[in-house]
Amino acid sequence: MVRLTRGGTWMLNHYKKCHHSEGDAAARNFCAWLVENTSTEFMEANINNALSCLQGQRISGYIGNTGIESWSGKTHFFIPELTADVEVGIEYSLDYSIDDFENFIQFTITAD
Protein backbone atom coordinates (compact mmCIF):
# COMPACT_ATOMS: atom_id res chain seq x y z
CA MET A 1 0.00 0.00 0.00
CA VAL A 2 1.21 3.48 -0.94
CA ARG A 3 -0.68 6.64 0.05
CA LEU A 4 0.28 10.09 -1.29
CA THR A 5 -1.28 12.94 0.69
CA ARG A 6 -1.44 16.68 0.35
CA GLY A 7 -2.80 18.79 3.18
CA GLY A 8 -2.79 22.11 4.92
CA THR A 9 -3.80 25.47 3.55
CA TRP A 10 -2.21 26.29 0.18
CA MET A 11 0.58 28.88 0.40
CA LEU A 12 0.28 28.97 4.19
CA ASN A 13 1.17 25.59 5.67
CA HIS A 14 0.68 23.09 2.82
CA TYR A 15 2.59 19.83 2.63
CA LYS A 16 2.91 16.66 0.58
CA LYS A 17 3.95 13.32 2.05
CA CYS A 18 3.83 9.64 1.28
CA HIS A 19 3.19 6.61 3.50
CA HIS A 20 3.88 3.01 2.50
CA SER A 21 3.59 -0.51 3.81
CA GLU A 22 6.27 -1.15 6.42
CA GLY A 23 9.17 -3.27 5.20
CA ASP A 24 8.15 -3.11 1.53
CA ALA A 25 11.12 -1.87 -0.51
CA ALA A 26 9.09 -1.46 -3.72
CA ALA A 27 6.48 0.63 -1.89
CA ARG A 28 9.21 2.76 -0.31
CA ASN A 29 10.80 3.39 -3.73
CA PHE A 30 7.42 4.19 -5.29
CA CYS A 31 6.73 6.69 -2.47
CA ALA A 32 10.05 8.41 -3.07
CA TRP A 33 9.25 8.64 -6.80
CA LEU A 34 5.75 10.00 -6.13
CA VAL A 35 7.01 12.75 -3.83
CA GLU A 36 9.48 13.92 -6.49
CA ASN A 37 7.25 13.51 -9.56
CA THR A 38 3.72 14.57 -8.59
CA SER A 39 1.94 17.88 -8.19
CA THR A 40 1.66 19.40 -4.73
CA GLU A 41 -0.78 22.03 -5.93
CA PHE A 42 -3.18 19.95 -8.03
CA MET A 43 -4.10 16.60 -6.50
CA GLU A 44 -6.69 16.14 -9.25
CA ALA A 45 -3.83 16.12 -11.78
CA ASN A 46 -2.18 13.27 -9.84
CA ILE A 47 -5.47 11.33 -9.82
CA ASN A 48 -6.08 11.97 -13.53
CA ASN A 49 -2.55 10.87 -14.42
CA ALA A 50 -2.81 7.63 -12.43
CA LEU A 51 -6.23 6.72 -13.84
CA SER A 52 -5.19 7.57 -17.40
CA CYS A 53 -1.99 5.57 -17.14
CA LEU A 54 -3.76 2.47 -15.87
CA GLN A 55 -6.40 2.79 -18.59
CA GLY A 56 -3.70 3.00 -21.27
CA GLN A 57 -4.53 6.61 -22.14
CA ARG A 58 -1.98 9.29 -22.90
CA ILE A 59 -2.11 12.78 -21.42
CA SER A 60 -0.23 15.33 -23.46
CA GLY A 61 0.83 18.60 -21.88
CA TYR A 62 -0.15 20.36 -18.69
CA ILE A 63 -3.77 19.93 -17.59
CA GLY A 64 -3.68 22.49 -14.75
CA ASN A 65 -6.51 23.18 -12.37
CA THR A 66 -9.67 21.48 -13.55
CA GLY A 67 -11.97 23.49 -11.29
CA ILE A 68 -12.90 20.44 -9.21
CA GLU A 69 -14.09 21.35 -5.73
CA SER A 70 -14.40 17.84 -4.35
CA TRP A 71 -13.92 14.37 -5.79
CA SER A 72 -13.64 10.89 -4.36
CA GLY A 73 -13.69 7.38 -5.71
CA LYS A 74 -12.36 3.87 -5.70
CA THR A 75 -11.46 1.67 -8.67
CA HIS A 76 -9.64 -1.55 -9.49
CA PHE A 77 -7.62 -2.38 -12.59
CA PHE A 78 -6.66 -5.83 -13.76
CA ILE A 79 -3.49 -5.88 -15.82
CA PRO A 80 -3.23 -9.18 -17.71
CA GLU A 81 -0.41 -7.82 -19.91
CA LEU A 82 1.94 -7.99 -16.91
CA THR A 83 0.73 -11.23 -15.44
CA ALA A 84 -2.66 -12.87 -15.14
CA ASP A 85 -3.01 -12.20 -11.41
CA VAL A 86 -2.12 -8.52 -10.83
CA GLU A 87 -4.69 -6.05 -9.56
CA VAL A 88 -4.12 -2.34 -8.87
CA GLY A 89 -6.60 -0.62 -6.60
CA ILE A 90 -6.82 3.15 -6.39
CA GLU A 91 -8.77 5.11 -3.81
CA TYR A 92 -8.76 8.91 -3.83
CA SER A 93 -10.38 11.87 -2.15
CA LEU A 94 -9.97 15.61 -2.40
CA ASP A 95 -11.97 18.57 -1.15
CA TYR A 96 -10.70 22.06 -1.85
CA SER A 97 -13.63 23.72 -0.05
CA ILE A 98 -12.20 22.76 3.37
CA ASP A 99 -8.98 24.21 4.78
CA ASP A 100 -6.62 21.67 6.31
CA PHE A 101 -8.35 18.75 4.57
CA GLU A 102 -5.91 15.98 3.69
CA ASN A 103 -6.35 15.07 0.01
CA PHE A 104 -4.98 11.69 -1.00
CA ILE A 105 -4.50 9.03 -3.61
CA GLN A 106 -3.81 5.50 -2.40
CA PHE A 107 -2.49 2.58 -4.43
CA THR A 108 -2.89 -1.06 -3.43
CA ILE A 109 -1.30 -3.72 -5.59
CA THR A 110 -2.01 -7.41 -5.20
CA ALA A 111 -0.46 -10.28 -7.10
CA ASP A 112 -0.90 -14.02 -6.79
Structural commentary:
The chain has helices at 25-37, 43-54, and strands at 2-7, 15-20, 70-78, 86-95, 103-111. It has one domain (2-111). It starts with a strand and ends with a strand. The relative contact order is 0.21. It has 112 residues and is an alpha+beta fold. It is globular. A five-stranded antiparallel β-sheet has the order 2-1-5-4-3, covered by helices on one side.
The H-and-E topology, N to C, reads as: EEHHEEE
* Beta-strand percentage range: 35-45%
Give the helix/strand class: alpha+beta
Mean model confidence by pLDDT: 86
Strand arrangement in the largest pleated sheet? 2-1-5-4-3
Global geometry? globular
Helicity level, as a percent range? Answer: 10-25%
Work out the radius of gyration.
14 Å
Question: How many distinct helices?
Answer: 2
Count of separate structural domains: 1
Q: Enumerate the spans where pLDDT stays under 50 for 5 or more consecutive residues.
A: none
Total number of β-strand segments?
A: 5
Sheet with most strands: 5 strands, antiparallel
- Tell me the span between the first and last alpha carbons: 16 Å
Features:
globular, 112 residues, alpha+beta, single chain
Task: Give a quick summary of the entry.
The chain has 112 residues and is of the alpha+beta class.
Give a topology summary.
Layout: E1 2-7, E2 15-20, H1 25-37, H2 43-54, E3 70-78, E4 86-95, E5 103-111
Antiparallel strand pairs: 1-2, 1-5, 3-4, 4-5
